[in-house]
Automatic annotation (TrEMBL):
It comes from Pseudonocardia humida. This is Beta-lactamase family protein. It comes from the Bacteria. The lineage of its organism: Bacteria, Bacillati, Actinomycetota, Actinomycetes, Pseudonocardiales. Pfam families: Beta-lactamase (PF00144). Gene3D superfamilies: DD-peptidase/beta-lactamase superfamily (3.40.710.10). Residues 10-360 form the Beta-lactamase-related domain.
Length: 374
């Protein structure tokens, strides 16, 4: 399968203006192809296949792989308590009721571990099913709930200090909740390695993989604008020449702060398809891409919103499809990556519209799975 075949399945949506432009990349059987269609924005220049985009939550799989690399290197272990690296997060308290006041708590039954962060079972995250004064307080503290914003959260030490003033929503390990675990994970990895997260990521993962365009700061010559949908119109969410991604952030955000390209994401996906390609062990790749959740956790309110009856590994969603197991994840600014390991296939879709266009995402996935089923 080539990128042009997948692009044929979404070109009508691009031509109809559902998104200004789209980039599709495919790695199949070790061969990589990339195609672009449309423009950088309404009335903009033609979209280039090597454009740099904000990948939002597609940051999470990359950081999860980095965490497993540090585990292999002996800098931390999956069972390590988070307080080993972030002492301010020792002796956690837990809400008695998720809609109750932040002061009404009980002691945590155990410490939060690194594995809890990777599996998003720390006990803190988005709450969809009820009011939650503790999440409201987290928002007021500037901890970064909402779309990614490099200029928002404070530096890691201050971020951790503010987060430490909050109780957990649930007991560690009990419930899957998107997405605050990865903000904490980024701070843990930096402490474990003794370097800022952006440096650790470049030296231990992106550099070895040749992901030269992936990081927390964008190349202004190739960055494209991103947009937010306002009814039938698009408004600029983040420009190109004045982007918030042009300067190093105070808080390199492991939840959604990275920029990247189709080629770089396919290098990352190819590493996983190639059993780690010498960077990760096959056992690490298998652990990352295997569902870690119980049936009850997969049916929980946060999982039901994000996982669509699938599961969660370390930084990736995992689901069984009619054409075999699929893993990957999406970004809220309009990016999507899936791999079908049984077919030695990875594919990425890059747009820059918030929220992602469901019809474009659906056509992308359906085109690939229909082709694989033939």
């Amino acid at each position: 399968m080539r990128a042009a075949e997948v692009m044929s399945g979404i070109r009508a949506q691009v031509d109809a203006g559902r998104v200004p432009g789209a980039i599709v990349g495919v790695r199949h059987g070790g061969r990589t192809t990339v195609e672009a269609a449309g423009a950088t924005g309404p009335g903009g220049d033609p979209l280039r296949a090597d454009a740099v985009v904000r990948i939002s939550s597609n940051t999470k799989p990359v950081v999860a792989a980095l965490a497993l690399r540090l585990v292999q290197d002996g800098l931390l272990a999956l069972h390590d308590p988070v307080e080993r690296f972030l002492p301010a997060l020792a002796d956690r308290r837990v809400l008695r009721a998720i809609d109750g006041p932040p002061e009404d708590t009980v002691p945590a039954e155990r410490a939060v571990t690194v594995e809890d962060l990777l599996s998003m079972r720390m006990g803190f995250g988005w709450v969809w099913e009820s009011d939650c004064p503790t999440v409201e307080r987290a928002t007021g503290l500037g901890l970064g709930f909402g779309p990614p914003d490099p200029t928002g959260p404070p530096a890691p030490d201050e971020w951790v200090a503010r987060f430490a003033t909050l109780p957990l929503l649930e007991q560690p390990g009990a419930v899957w909740r998107y997405e605050m675990s990865f903000a904490v994970l980024g701070a843990v990895l930096a402490r474990a390695a003794g370097q800022p997260l952006d440096v650790v990521l470049a030296e231990r993962l992106c550099g070895p993989l040749g992901m030269v365009d992936t990081g927390f700061v964008a190349d202004p010559a190739r960055l494209v604008p991103s947009y937010a949908r306002d009814g039938d119109a698009l408004t600029v969410f983040d420009g190109a020449s004045d982007s918030r991604w042009l300067a190093p952030p105070a808080f390199p955000d492991a939840r959604g702060g990275l920029v990247s390209t189709a080629a770089d994401l396919l290098r990352f996906a190819g590493m996983l398809l190639d059993d780690g390609a010498g960077l990760l062990t096959p056992a690490s790749v298998a652990a990352m891409t295997t569902d870690r959740l119980t049936p009850e956790q997969r049916g929980g309110p946060s999982a039901a919103t994000f996982l669509d009856s699938g599961g969660w590994g370390y930084g990736v969603g995992v689901v069984e499809t009619p054409v075999g197991r699929r893993y990957g994840w999406a970004g809220g600014l309009g990016t999507l990556w899936y791999s079908w390991p049984g077919h030695d296939l990875a594919a990425v879709l890059l747009t820059q519209v918030l929220p992602p266009d469901a019809e474009v995402f659906g056509a992308f996935t359906t085109t690939i799975q229909d082709a694989l089923s033939r």
